[in-house]
Amino acid sequence: MADESPAKLLGKVLRLESSGGCRDRATTGGMAEFMFRWLPPITAGAPQQQAEALSQLEGKFEAYAELSPQQRADLVDQALDLLQELDADQSDAEPTGDETDQVCWDDSVTKLKEVGSKRAELLAALDIYTIGDLLLHCPLGYEDRSQLTVVEALEHRERQTLRVEVTGKGQIIRRGKLAIARVPARDETGQCTLVWFNQPYRANMYSAGTELLVTGSVRVGKKRPTVRVQEAEQLENLPHDWQDRLVPHYAVTTGLSQTMLRRLITQALSRCQLVPAGLVPASIENQRDQPGLSWAVAHAHGPADAEEARQARARLTYERLFALQAALAQRRHNVKQHNERSVVACDGVLAELSATLPFTLTEAQRRVIEQVLADLGKPEPQYRLIHGDVGSGKTVVAAAALLAAARAGRQAAMMAPTEILAEQDWTVVSELLEPFGIAPVLLTGSMAEADKQVIHEDLATGLIDCVAGTHALFQESVGFADLAVAVIDEQQRFGVAQRARLAEKGDGTNILVMSATPIPRTLALTAYGDFDVSVVDELPPGRQPVHTELLTGRQKSQAYETVIAHIEQGRQAFIVCPVIEEAKTKYVTAAEELFRHLSGHVFPNLNLGLVHGQMPSDEREAAMAKFRAGEIDVLVATSVVEVGVDVPNATVMLVQNAERFGLAQLHQLRGRVGRGGESSCCMLVTGSGSPEVIDRLTVLVRTNDGFEIASEDLARRGPGELTGTRQHGIPDLEMSGLMGDTRILVRAREDALKLIGDDPRLEQPAHQPLKHYLARHSQEGQDWTL
Ligand code: ADP
Ligand code: MG
Prior knowledge:
With 786 residues, the chain is of the alpha/beta class. The strands form 4 sheets. Strands 11-12-10-13-14-9-15 form a 7-stranded parallel sheet, sandwiched between helices. Bound molecules: adenosine-5'-diphosphate and magnesium ion.
């Protein structure tokens, strides 16, 4: 239904333009953009006859900037006439709302009731700044409130919803810094306890008899079940039809509850009548059989049924993905400019390199090296993501690129996220390049200032042709004479800023990023849309899958025996314990204590070493070197050994508190063993009895395929882990469950590529909304890529 106020708004702007002499000054973005944005929603609600005239009008306004003043004036008059006609038709059908009550799509969220600067900040953490951002905040899913559980049927698992009555006063229990509010409740089938962490006020918030709809994770034990409440709403505050409704749940942030976010969205929906046509130009939108944005906004937040919810969410997701892909396509367009400095002659590199290798390249390695070298020969910078499972042999691919650059008299650099890895890459690459007379230099942060200074100078003059190191390599003081190739190893560990800084180091530098976290195709397209992607999808021959077992805490001694058995065969072992984030100091003692316990009581006759992140780097390197040289039997470590460390003689790994690690991370850890030809084993020890934990860890027992594990990891992450993924800069799309729907992504990507191909700088009037949106988002410091 068309609204009175949008037409009025339009009328106001048109009259302003007219009185200003039609100089295209009435709006900041120009009349074409304004009409493109605000006409379609009016058109959508207009009777057929006017609708046609209105959409023709929109087309005519596209060239507004190029028209003569007279032509402009005619057009503005035409538009005003049409609006008047429309107004007359509908004025008696319109409820006259309080105009001041209306908010606009582009208004700040602070226009909403209940949003002050504090809440605005919380919303900003979700990338929500405007009313429009809020309405585009796509639900992660829905709860079907016709499907409630009852106390009797509660199961030991996450997210169940039930309707209960508070039966008495709550109490507050304090455990250290934690305050736990416990409130007794019941329904017809039994009694339960509602539990809130760090919200002590909950204990006295509800009087006996209050009816609540609660959603939370449930623990069922010997006593009455407890519900750790994630959401609670008083029944009397819910709409009458709550039981028939699919209730959306959203990505939220600490301090901003589901209930509050829902309330704000409901408020915004009722106060913002006018949803613009969206960022997707009509020329593209019309080719896609999908609902309009205004329909999607209205129905995503309050769908009638699951099918409607799916369509609405898909449309919102498409909107976000389209913008993301357009940003990536634009970035790609910008870096892919013709640049002769990107050309590195590579003739014969592959043949010469493979002739000197101690092994035969796998088909996958050969294919990826060919792709890399072919693009090095082209006069545009190469941006390539190379990913492949742990141990698939990516280092030699990097070596091929480094060799090509150095052999052509240019410079090459390889960067790793930690000193351990940088040193290891340097050692391996030095060996591989030695036959060619290339001796890479190592540069890390902990080196002596004077030594670093000399290297800086030699890099600046071009004396050094190949360098490996940590991000010390890309500090501002380091300048390269002629950096042709830069490789970033284990890129999943690097931040965006470091990657961006790297690109600035050279003019036309070819950039290869390598990741050992296999990346599902959808995620690769989303996060690395500006990169070409190569996959090393084959392991060197003779690798045996790492036999993986899941053990309980009580079976630890059995695990220790296995460790001893391997060592008696002349092999080496890793024992890994997790980082406990709450207290860094505590975690150091955890690793140190474990080390003391193991060397004193469990393995008194073995040589043990210790590495953790808080150690001085020289000590850490000394321990690693000893382990590599076989002087240490058992290396006790935190997850600093997670990436890349390559010690083929290590054949057994024991992971303590395995439940504290993500699946992909455990797979990385496990990749430290099974690197030689010997059969290897990995024991995951967990004290957790939670079926979810067991189920999750069992994935690793079942498969050694990093891709399968990565997809499982993605599928299993619930809203609770949102914050973790958000840091990577991917919007919450993967959480919405829709990212699995590759079709939406592929569609958005195709459309964005086509658009940027036609209009790379987004200069056409119809592309202005997108241009402004992207500009606004890059201003707000968002980064679109990993
Ligand atoms: P990634 O970095 O992909 O995890 P690496 O490059 O460290 O893997 O390689 C793992 C191990 O496999 C190294 O010891 C390396 O020498 C060895 N390797 C690499 N390619 C081959 C191959 N084609 N055949 C046999 N061994 C290989
Ligand atoms: Mg590696």
